[in-house]
Design goal:
By secondary structure, the chain is mainly beta. The chain has 2 domains: 31-202, Pectate Lyase C-like, CATH 2.160.20.10; 221-393, Single-stranded right-handed beta-helix, Pectin lyase-like (Pectate Lyase C-like). Helix content is 10%, strand content 50%. The protein contains 4 helices and 32 strands. It has helices at residues 8-22, 46-58, 102-106, 132-139, and strands at residues 28-31, 40-44, 63-67, 71-73, 77-80, 88-92, 95-97, 110-115, 120-123, 126-128, 149-154, 157-162, 165-167, 174-177, 180-185, 188-190, 201-204, 207-217, 223-225, 230-239, 245-250, 259-265, 268-270, 274-281, 288-302, 304-312, 327-340, 344-349, 356-368, 371-372, 374-378, 380-389. The strands form 2 sheets. It has a 21-stranded mixed sheet that branches. The longest helix has 15 residues, at 8-22. The protein is elongated and about 65 Å long. The two termini are 22 Å apart. InterPro entries: Glyco_hydro_28 (IPR000743), Pectin_lyas_fold (IPR012334), Pectin_lyase_fold/virulence (IPR011050). One of its GO terms (biological process) is carbohydrate metabolic process. One of its GO terms (molecular function) is polygalacturonase activity.
């Protein structure tokens, strides 16, 4: 049985976070200007930021790294854990700016990465990754680097990201990988609707993650949920443009950790490719998706408001004539309403080897051009409750 109220751990995280903010006056402060950072947007301040991190990390006190107003040019940086400080707060009043030449960051996996840290908070500020020049390179089919994720947390605990603006990432904006107890709130993410692979927030191999009151405008998934995600709460997120909120693509590996206990609540989608999607490759896997609740979502001109696609096989490479091994069960769609920009508003295209089971539609009202929409079902078992439009094919 799923816990349908917000997990108690989120309340604890938010209270802890508020206490952290209110007690900044008691923290040992490190101003990046004192380490040589220049707020002119032209002088490389990478070394200064790393020195400020080292000072805070090696302190036995709770610390704050302060970034005053201005623009700070920064290259790729890894903030390593193993810190003595029990709490490090990045208070950013300025803008962190990537190098103008996209190749400088493009050859790196990440621009700003935190690895093995505990108790790190990022408050405020803007991250300008200057992605459009790399996107243009990719659009011209030239020999381009893959690009860097703007902000990543790996193998970390007790992380807060609040009131941050991420602008024009080269690749993913925020990645949460192998983490525990993460609270993302009041974050804005902006990239062009045609920007490639610029997922807003990607979560994988992580548990107890909350994403609340965020606005995500990008060229790929607003929120992408990868293997090994457990206890994820998404609430009051506005998405568009973009590809919607997506669980998957799954079955990238034969032995893959499952996705479970996910709640997506009070979301709004504007003109996105998808609304609420579960997607897996058409190939063998031991993975699963279960205990998912999609609640109270508004769709405005969305191509695929509700979709499960277990036959994902782009360009027919590495998966022709195979079927998905991902087991999908116990998925609830409740209070989903609005408009579809295509006639098929609900599509369940499940695996013939592992049919979707326990699918429930409740209080669904989706239309197409002010006319009735349609449903499409393959290899799926479930039930409907109360009003369901379009007419269910379950």
């Amino acid at each position: 049985m799923m816990n349908l109220s917000r997990p108690s751990h989120s309340i604890i995280l938010i209270l802890f976070f508020m206490l952290a903010i209110n007690s900044t006056s008691a923290l040992t402060k490190y101003n990046v200007l004192n380490f040589g950072a220049k707020p002119n947007g032209k002088t490389d301040s990478t070394k200064a930021f790393l020195m400020a991190w080292k000072a805070a990390c090696t302190s036995a006190d709770s610390t704050i790294i302060y970034v005053p107003k201005g623009r700070y040019l920064l290259g790729s940086m890894a903030f390593q854990g193993g810190c003595k400080s029990p709490q490090i707060i990045f208070r950013i009043d300025g803008t962190l700016v990537a190098p103008q030449d996209y190749r400088v960051l493009g050859k790196s996996t990440d621009w700003l990465s935190f690895e093995g840290v505990n108790g790190v908070s990022i408050l405020g500020g803007a991250l300008d990754a200057k992605g459009p020049s790399l996107w243009a390179c990719k659009a011209s089919h030239s020999n381009c680097p893959s690009g860097a994720t703007t902000l990543s947390f790996t193998n970390s605990k007790n992380i807060r990201i609040r009131s941050l603006l991420s602008l024009n990432s080269q690749m993913f904006h925020i990645v949460i990988n192998g983490c525990e107890n993460v609270n993302v709130q009041w974050v804005r993410i902006i990239a062009a609707g045609n920007s490639p692979n610029t997922d807003g927030i990607h979560v994988q191999l992580s548990k107890n993650v909350n994403i609340i009151k965020c606005s995500i405008k990008t060229g790929d998934d607003c929120i992408s949920i990868g293997p090994g995600t457990k206890n994820l709460w998404v609430e009051q997120v506005t998405c568009g443009p973009g590809h919607g909120i997506s669980i998957g693509s799954l079955a990238k590996d034969l032995k893959e950790e499952g996705v479970q206990n996910i709640t997506v609540k009070k979301t709004i989608f504007f003109g996105t490719q998808n609304g609420l999607r579960i997607k897996s490759w058409a190939r063998p896997s031991t993975g699963f998706v279960q205990g998912i609740r999609f609640m109270d979502s508004l769709m405005i001109n969305v191509q695929n408001p509700i979709v499960i696609d277990q036959n994902y096989c782009p360009h027919n490479l590495n998966c022709p004539n195979q079927v998905s091994g991902i087991k999908i069960k116990d998925i609830i769609y409740e209070g989903i309403r609005g408009t579809s920009s295509t006639q098929v508003a609900i599509k369940f295209d499940c695996s013939p080897k592992n049919p979707c089971t326990g699918i429930r539609l409740q209080n669904i009202n989706l239309s197409y051009l002010n006319k009735p929409a349609q449903s499409s079902c393959s290899n799926v078992r479930g039930k409907t409750l109360n009003l369901v439009r379009p007419e269910s094919c379950l």
